[in-house]
Amino acid sequence: MKLNCRICEVTVQPFMSFGKMPIANGFLTPKDFDKEYFYELKPGFCENCLTFQILEQPDPEKMFHQNYAFFSRTSRRMVDHFKAYADWVKNEYLTTSNPFVVEIGSNDGSMLENFSKKNIRHLGIEPSSNVAEEARKYNVNTSCAFFNLTTAEKIVSEYGEADALIAANVMCHIPDLHEVAQGIDHLLNSMGVVVFEEPYLGDMIKNTAYDQIYDEHVYIFSTRSVKNIFSKYGFELIEVKPQPTHGGSMRYVLARNEKRSISKSVEKQLNYEDENNLHLKGTYDLFRERCELSRKNLIDILQKQKSNGRRVVGYAATSKSTTVLNYCSIGPDLIDFISDTTPIKQGKYSPGAHIPILSYEELRKGYPDSLLLFAWNHKTEIMEKEFSFLEKGGEWIVYVPDVALIRK
Length: 408
Ligand code: DWN
Ligand code: SAH
Known about the structure:
seven-stranded mixed sheet, Methyltransf_Zn-bd_dom_put, Rossmann fold, single chain, MeTrfase_14, SAM-dependent_MTases_sf, 18 strands, globular, C-methyltransferase domain-containing protein
């Protein structure tokens, strides 16, 4: 089948396939097992516009709806991070007398509540109605919609132009970035800025963090790809700032051409990407080989645990874990259950692999021999919370950057 780049439309061949995948956040009950939806997860790298992307994606409405399972507030450190992010945007870019800021993918309002508390005019655009409803409990003005040109037109007619469009972990979820760029162009005033941060391609490749690839993440951006995409719409990249969040992210700042000065950070990051061969196809062939090795090592470790009669429980039913469990064919034979703090996931089963999801309280009733860390991006926060697990002789199984056991 001929597949085209979503950005520049040249033909792109997938460099690997992770096989058939379910909806990453499609937690389900046994009555729905036989109707479960699958698509083929196959990433490709466009050598023309240098954008890393998945070549088949389920319709957005299948992923983002009234039962969306991810709530940003499940990580205390992310809540702190969003406060610092919001303060930074305010200090750097909201310098007019009555600024207006729009966030897309505002989820449960963890970012925008920081503007709301300061009485700054704001609006969240969030298509998943359950998380949008949660945001309203924090006095966050939220509209339930997908961001596109039509949404931007409605915002401008109701509120006027915006000083900043901000986002975290959502730009990489939207297949039609041409519409997004047109919407942004319509929405922002002449000095307006776009600020967003997303998982960074350089970190994903360096750490073999293949679980960043799943249905919602249609793109994994590099500095070069972001610069290319938005340059078609009269926006230039004026700053990049690496972030430690979600296992390695990048914050991008864009402004209309020649309106603001360009920081040296952009050139520096572009050089880093060239030095690390992010523009070359061969990099992705090597990545595929490391994914295959990671899969082999993880299955080996879990099978050894099983043959030694050791009990393994998964820690956090992340979206990322759906790729790992299905790519490695890990099921309830190897993992007893996955513990997760999100009520909407509890009592259900993991997508595809059908491992039971139980509450955190269930885990605390009696630690297993081993915990498989699916939320490796929140390792610091989780290790602090679970220090007694290692003290009591437990061991962590981790797989990013390498498959390994952590013991006291
Ligand atoms: O881009 C996205 C990021 C921001 O969030 C989305 N596409 C979906 C989601 O990805 P994820 O599910 O991989 O996110 P996290 O933040 O790695 O995982 C959150 C899950 O982990 C939640 O279900 C809660 C759970 N968790 C837990 O059980 N105990 C998290 C922490 C920190 C904990 O201590
Ligand atoms: N910004 C939050 C949530 C990230 S999860 C955080 O970083 O924690 C991605 C979010 O983007 C979901 O809440 C999803 O419903 C939303 N989303 C998906 N497509 C969107 C679109 N086209 N416009 C706006 N939001 C979208």
